[in-house]
Amino acid sequence: MNVVPDTSVVIDGRVSAAIEGEEDVEVTFEGATVSVPEAVVAELEAQANDGLESGWDGLSELQTLADLAEGRRIDLEYVGDRPDAIERGHAAEGEIDALIRDLAEELKATFVTSDIVQAEVAEAKGLEVAYISPKSREVGTLALEEFFDDETMSVHLKTDTRPMAKRGALDEMRYEAIADDPLSEEEMDEYAREVVDGAKEASGGFVELSEPGMKIVQFRDYRIAIARPPFSDGIEITAVKPIAQTDIEDYEHAEELKDRLGEHQRGVLISGAPGAGKSTFAQAVARYLNDEEYAVKTMEKPRDLQVGPEITQYTELGGEMAKTADALLMVRPDYTIYDEVRKTDDFEVFADMRLAGVGMIGVVHATRAIDALQRLVGRVELGMIPQVVDTVVYIEAGEVAKVYDVTTEVKVPAGLTEEDLARPVILVSEFESGEPEYEIYTFNRQVVTVPLDDEDGGPGTESGVDRLAKGEIEREIRSVARGYVDVQLSGQDRAVVYVDDDDISTVIGKGGGRITDIENRLGIDIDVRTHDENPHSGGAASDGSSGSGAAGGGSAGQPEGRITTPEITSRHVVVPVEGNQGETVEIRAGGDYLFTATVSRGGEIQVSRGSAIAEELEDAIDRQEPITVVPS
């Protein structure tokens, strides 16, 4: 008897099982000639090189067959040619399977497979087929479950390292060793293989992500990530299990939030630092909405929320959450939980679904409640933000620490007085009291977020509006003055500007026309004086050099923030700002405030050459002053 096995039956170890007469295999190959195609070897080798357990399992089976041949229980041979690069590239389309079937036909051998599709195709082509069902095992518990107790949230295992765990309540989590001896590579490999096999075979288990060097699997209540070299510097396993299940009634503002969610479909951001309890709160909201007979779905990559079977959990469709969103619009949920909203694409998908009328609840990493909302700036049109997100819930140590109500109103921003400065303003108000805490609006073509009551405020502390006003006044005066400019606010609608003696007439202009135009543009009364009259500087800095009284603060030679190197092109001065995409930042030269701007998606700020801002920036570059970026 001559048999030709395909890759599936070799990986599953069923060829040796048939030789050794295991009870669950209905055929026997003892004494047969086993012809292993080189295409099978090539595919197993490629999978093993990619760090896939299936490749290693298949190679282990080939070694078992070699041992059986050495014991003269079978004859073993390798036949055919290795597939070329084109054939390997089309393996998913069946090219390798076709090569193996052709070999079986050429050798007039029995084609052996554990793949029901391949068995049907081979029979249709007239081959003699032996179909051996895949091995089934009763999956009980995993060995790594022994590391968990009732207070353990996550277990962290790595080669040559002692097992560690995070244990305790959310507000007092401890990262501690849970064993004395480091784990060997063999032990780690065994743990990893058991996890993957268990996820494939257990009810409620599946492989969420499989990439070279990384697998993420769900095994019942456990979310397990397995990293292997070269992606990581050793085998690493991180297993997470929820230790707390809460109801929405367990949180502060529960009744108000329930009423709000029940009024109509809402746009909610659940924010907080990693490990603060955001997902636990999102799960409580999902269960509440489901109990209130809302159709609830989730969008997750990887799927991590612990919700009941009545709530369907979706992941990326075709590698894109946008396609998942299109599919969900056909499903017509009342609410969708989006965990987690991080990248620009995620925010765009969140906004599209919200504007389509779906209630959206997004989970966002943020260290302050306002930061969650600011992450929408630059990604969603400013005027649409209240339609996309009307509620921000900030979670800290497992508790609801802050809730914001987000609305829009056409008004004069706080701290400005002229009626012609009225514009759409996003009001971010404390949920319970209704008192506004922040305003977001466009000022001089830039999006600004202004705190109405600085948390660190006190006597002598400038508010956000004060800093903004000083910066704008300084920019306007510097566009006409040649020397050093210092701005001091004397009220909500008054300021004193100190300039060099030679600049007095230039700043005021003929008949006061120039300073009047500036006052009209800014909506503020400006008194122009010389530096000798400045009580804050003692008359210094009249030579035009930068002093400590410059708006924005910072001592000369000791700039705050991160230093950057602008690039001057034919049309723009480009300021690179890596890592702050969509955020509002201040640009300073030598510690002196220049302007405030929102960073583009490409991680830069472009200032048109010829503008007053660009000239100031170029002058600072010529003076070799350090240009720094400071988050607003």
Automatic annotation (TrEMBL):
Q: Which residues form the PIN domain?
A: 1-120
Gene3D superfamilies according to UniProt: 3.30.300.20, 5'-nuclease, P-loop containing nucleotide triphosphate hydrolases
Q: Where is this region: Disordered?
A: 529-568
Transmembrane stretches in the record are none
List where Gly residues composition bias occurs.
Answer: 546-556
What InterPro entries does UniProt report for this protein, alphabetically? Answer: AAA+_ATPase (IPR003593), KH_dom-like_a/b (IPR015946), KH_sf_prok-type (IPR009019), Nucleic_acid_metab_PIN/TRAM (IPR052041), P-loop_NTPase (IPR027417), PIN-like_dom_sf (IPR029060), PIN_dom (IPR002716), T2SS/T4SS_dom (IPR001482)
Which residue range or ranges hold the AAA+ ATPase domain? 264-399
Q: Which Pfam families match?
A: PIN, T2SSE
Q: Molecular function (GO) terms listed?
A: RNA binding
| Keywords, in A-Z order | RNA-binding
Family per similarity comment: In the N-terminal section; belongs to the PINc/VapC protein family.
Q: What is this protein called?
A: PINc/VapC family ATPase
* Source organism phylogeny: Archaea, Methanobacteriati, Methanobacteriota, Stenosarchaea group, Halobacteria
